Amino acid sequence: xxxxxxxxxxxxxxxxxxxxxxxxxxxxxxxxxxxxxxxxxxxxxxxxxxxxxxxxxxxxxxxxxxxxxxxxxxxxxxxxxxxxxxxxxxxxxxxxxxxxxxxxxxxxxxxxxxxxxxxxxxxxxxxxxxxxxx
Length: 134
What we know:
By secondary structure, this protein is of the alpha+beta class. 23% of the residues lie in helices and 21% in strands.
């Protein structure tokens, strides 16, 4: 019986210790005449609750579409699978470059490959698309 009372006292002590670490149920609200402070103790101006109007203007971003060059030269580089592959001839079309790459990389078939061309940086990046289901 004495052992049970000791265990209960231990539980009470343990529960009191646990409650000490529990957060307060509700943070105290400042009085109307007290200034509101932030986490760093700086005084904040009270926010006035004004309904915000949404602008009716449509603010869509216009995409700039650049036309890919029909022919690429030896100054272009193909970046694929961690390799930098130079274009072997001048005046090659992007389709010819893709066919050249398909010999080494069979996943670059015509149906599943999109060729991204950056004319400013002289880069060609083949992107393999997934097959459509159904």
